[in-house]
Structure formats: structure tokens, C-alpha cells
Write a structure and sequence with these properties.
Elements: E1 2-7, E2 12-19, E3 22-30, H1 35-45, E4 55-59, H2 65-82, E5 86-89, H3 91-98, E6 105-111, E7 114-121, E8 124-125, E9 129-130, E10 139-143, E11 153-155, H4 160-173
Parallel strand pairs: 1-4, 4-5, 6-10, 10-11
Antiparallel strand pairs: 1-2, 2-3, 6-7, 7-8, 7-9
Organism: Thermocrinis ruber
InterPro entries: ATPase_NBD, Gcp-like_dom
Pfam family, one: TsaD
Length: 189
């Protein structure tokens, strides 16, 4: 089974192809081009044909609303036209799931002037919140490019599309139906 996963949540764009549970392609671009301009051109350049996939996956945030909406609309349209399932993932949850740090831990991302976070403790993963200066207990994790200087662990790179693609592949393999294309929206904070 093959799955195409994209992440348009920030100024960088990343795309992954998951085949039989393994990442066969990871593409990353930090471009000045807009997501709507980049997506069709990039798929063509990489010789990616939507009809060659069994399912699709994308980030619903957190991130910048406009590129998220463009990515969501683009992949919803492809999923609808090909009649294939679409799975979603949320970036903070991926950081908490896949960064090997013991709980409690806090994933942080900067969206404009706001720091958005999510906490994982022994009870599970909590809700998405906006940081207002309150103390955070646990190991804090952020992307270095997001300039969250107080974070304990600064990641130079985190391939959201790859980890989201692997998580979505497991859902596809388990027979989950995918999301309702007509009610899918980005995470609004």
C-alpha cells in the first residue's frame, strides 16, 4: 500500500511517500513560493501521480491558517476525485509521540507571535493551548527555527509529513475509513 503525506503548516513544505509501512521518499523545501503555486508543480516535478496512491494524509495544524487551508483544500480535492481515503495528523501530537523523551514533556511551536503547546504526561496527551507565560513542567521540545529559546530540546528538523504519514499508514492498514472530506478544517487556536 502507498500513501502520500503533505505538510503545509509553516513556510517550509514537506512531503513524504510511505510504501508498505516504510518511508520511501521525503522531500523538504523552504521556499518563498506560496503553497498553491508549489503543490501542483512539485507533484509534477517529483513524478507523483495521485492515482498511484491508496490513501492520502496531511497536517491540520497547528500552523499558519492560509497555507494549512490551501494544503487541506488541495488534498481534499484529490481524495474526492480519486475516491481514496484521507487521514489527518496534528503537529504537536506528532512531536510528543515521536521525540524520544520521557513524560512529562511539552511540544511547542510558534505561530506568528504566539507559542502554541501541548503536554504529554502519564495520563496521556492534553489539549492544544496558547502559552501565556505559565510555568511548564517537563521537558520542552521546539523547532530551532521557531526561536523558542527556553526550550530544553531544540530540533533542527522534524519531518511532520513523514511521521504523520507513518501514523496514517497504520490507520489505513487497520481499516479506518479516513476523515469526512466535507467537514475537515484546520486546527484553529
Amino acid at each position: 500500500m502507498r500513501l502520500l503525506s503533505i505538510d503545509t503548516s509553516f513556510s517550509f513544505f514537506n512531503l513524504s511517500v510511505v510504501e508498505d509501512g516504510k518511508i520511501s521518499m521525503l522531500y523538504y523545501e523552504d521556499s518563498k513560493k506560496k503553497s498553491l503555486e508549489l503543490l501542483p508543480t512539485l507533484l509534477n516535478k517529483l513524478d507523483i501521480k495521485p492515482e498511484d496512491f491508496d490513501a492520502f494524509s496531511l497536517s491540520v495544524g497547528v500552523g499558519y491558517t492560509t497555507p494549512l487551508r490551501i494544503g487541506i483544500t488541495f488534498l481534499k480535492t484529490i481524495a474526492f476525485l480519486t475516491q481514496k481515503p484521507l487521514y489527518t495528523y496534528e503537529n504537536l501530537e506528532l512531536m510528543l509521540r515521536y521525540v524520544p523523551v520521557p513524560a512529562p514533556k511539552i511540544a511547542l511551536l510558534r505561530v506568528s507571535s504566539h507559542i502554541i503547546y501541548r503536554v504529554q504526561n502519564q495520563k496521556g496527551i492534553g489539549p492544544i493551548k496558547r502559552w501565556k507565560g505559565e510555568p511548564l513542567e517537563g521537558t520542552t521540545i521546539a523547532l530551532r527555527s521557531h526561536s523558542i529559546d527556553f526550550a530544553d530540546l531544540q530540533l533542527d528538523f522534524f519531518p511532520f509529513s513523514a511521521y504523520g504519514g507513518l501514523l496514517s499508514y497504520e490507520r489505513l492498514k487497520a481499516g479506518e475509513p479516513g476523515v469526512d472530506l466535507f467537514s475537515l478544517e484546520p486546527c484553529y487556536i
